[in-house]
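User: I want to check something. If I give you two sequences, will you return the structure for each one separately, not as a complex?

Assistant: Yes, each is folded on its own. Here is the first sequence with its structure:
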Amino acid sequence: MDINQRLTEELDVKRWQIDAAVQLIDEGNTIPFISRYRKEATGALDEEVIRKIEEVYVYQENLLKRKEDVIRLIDFRFLLIVKSKGGFHHGSRPSYLFNFE
């Protein structure tokens, strides 16, 4: 499930409203600007909801980046261990370590 879908369910608003708010936030618009001057784009979401969208979206984006970093580091360490023990055997990568969902 993607971040915007989670926000849609958590905040009980429509998906297009979340998509529009996230796009405006990504473009660098401030929350007060979005709530006052982009009501037509967000379906009149208030400042509190937009702030929650930004908070959850930024947190989830950072979490996703961190997961990718952890996977990359685990993969790299695994390759170092395999190389140090004399070779790589087909299918020996522990794929269960990389299933975070």
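And separately, the second sequence with its own structure:
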Amino acid sequence: MSNIYDLANELSRGIRDLPEYKAVLASKEAIDADADAKRYSETTWLSNKKFMESSSLDKCQLKTNKRKCRTLLGSYKETQL
């Protein structure tokens, strides 16, 4: 029987083997290699971070919004079947 750490490591290895994960790594390496792209990426990240920190939503509102989105997504999926 595997323990939780073995399962977590197996999941981590599986994620790292995904083509989508490898594509993100390649994109990050390309951005890091280009000084202008890296500066833009860091500036964008900082702007987004500041925006999120200044947001007036509290945790309760975030959970409520998340539930609403899940409900809407579920309704949408049902109509697509």
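Because they were folded independently, the notes below concern the second chain alone. The first helix runs from residue 4 to 17. The chain has a mean pLDDT of 82.
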